[in-house]
Design goal:
This protein is mainly alpha-helical and 368 residues long. It has 2 domains: 56 residues, no CATH class; 291 residues, no CATH class. 71% of the residues lie in helices and 3% in strands. The strands form 2 sheets. It has a two-stranded antiparallel sheet. β3 and β4 form a beta hairpin. α1 packs parallel to α3, α2 packs across α11 and α10 packs antiparallel against α15. The longest helix has 34 residues. The model has no long low-confidence stretch (mean pLDDT 87).
């Protein structure tokens, strides 16, 4: 399912508000609305048709940076909305191809099925056709690619990694709505765990926690920065409005309907596996790894499982996020389910890490 409402909002913000002061419009993220026209796409069409009567009102969307305007405004000078969708598809396919190529170069080809499974679960055609969905996808793709490219020059303990993942959080907050924010960090750290496997379990978990804290600092710091800056420059109390929305999305009340936190998780999980092919592919992956383990030596199996635990822990992050933002997950299940695609990736990597770890211990047959 596409989200034409949010895409209409993005186009509306990128095009509208030109009669206001530039700084005020940039901080307020104004979009055209009509009392008789709730959908921002229809309101945009009505506004562009020259029908700017007394029914036109300008709405504020201050709680997000709406950073997509940085690239959307210039693109709209040269491309139509359908052409932007085609460009989107080409860029996402190119980035995905680069990731697979880099994984092959890093001798991580055995984990490509996990990446493909995650990408399939996200429904890449819908992602490419929807600008809103694409923002989270780009952050996830670029963070994974950055890990693969930088790992050639920077080791596991390099000081560059905290900045990489803090920048991931900053980009997630700047370009995105509250859609699938943890997808980027889970995909990036999942790739990081595949590239770097040295150290004890505790030392690796501590490093993951440290990198995760830097992401939180970048994400929340950048987001809260918008509330403060926009409040000062627009002279509106955007801080209280934003905090009110946070409490709303983390509550257990969806438009008057009382829900439990696990109902949000249940609804998104049901939507994720509403595609029966995904379920079949997941079962096939489990069976393949089971066969590989049966045909592999059993020595050191416990150590191999322990080494794969960081991937398992990362897979719990999207689940926890979905539970925390229960109302948001429940109301917007048709796109919030993509958060769980991070769990699909890391759980698949967990299984493949164990399977390949034992498979490589098989004795090499001697040539006669």
């Amino acid at each position: 399912m596409l989200d034409n409402y949010s895409d209409g909002l993005m186009l509306n913000i990128a095009i509208g508000g030109t009669e206001f002061h530039t700084v005020f419009a940039a901080m307020s993220n104004l979009y055209a609305s009509y009392y008789d026209c709730v959908n921002p796409m229809y309101a945009l069409i009505k506004s562009l048709s020259g029908n700017r009567d007394d029914w036109l009102v300008w709405e504020y969307y201050c709680r997000y940076w709406n950073g997509y305007v940085v690239w959307l405004k210039p693109l709209l000078l040269f491309l139509t909305y359908p052409q932007i969708r085609l460009l989107n598809m080409a860029l996402e396919l190119s980035l995905a191809g680069l990731i697979l190529w880099q994984m092959t170069k890093k001798k991580l080809a055995g984990y490509i099925p996990a990446v493909l499974l995650c990408w399939y679960a996200m429904c890449p055609v819908a992602v490419a056709l929807c600008m809103e969905y694409s923002m989270s996808a780009y952050v996830a793709l670029l963070s994974s690619l950055a890990v693969l490219l930088l790992s050639g020059k920077h080791g596991q303990r390099s000081r560059v990694w905290p900045y990489v993942f803090m920048l991931t959080g900053v980009c997630e907050s700047f370009f995105n709505f509250l859609v699938n924010p943890v997808l980027g960090i889970v995909c990036g750290l999942g790739m990081w765990c595949l590239v770097f496997t040295d150290g004890t379990l505790w030392s690796r978990v501590k490093q993951l926690l440290s990198l995760g804290v830097h992401w939180v600092f970048g994400y929340l710091g950048m987001w809260a920065g918008k509330w403060v800056v926009s409040s000062v420059l627009t002279k509106r109390n955007n801080i209280s409005e934003s905090i009110e929305k946070i409490f709303y999305h983390t509550a257990q009340n969806a438009d008057g309907e009382e829900i439990t936190r696990f109902q949000g998780l249940q609804r998104t999980a049901e939507n994720l596996f509403s595609n029966p092919i995904l379920g079949i592919l997941c079962v096939a992956l489990v069976l393949v790894t089971a066969v590989m383990l049966l045909r592999s030596p059993k020595t050191g199996l416990g150590e191999t499982c322990v080494r794969a635990v960081p991937q398992l822990l990362l897979g719990l992050v999207p689940i926890a996020w979905t539970i925390v933002v229960a109302t948001h997950s429940y109301q917007h299940f048709w796109f919030s389910y993509r958060t769980l695609c991070g769990s699909v990736l890391t759980f698949a990597c967990f299984l493949l890490s164990i399977a390949w770890g034992q498979w490589q211990k098989r004795p090499v047959p001697q040539k006669l």
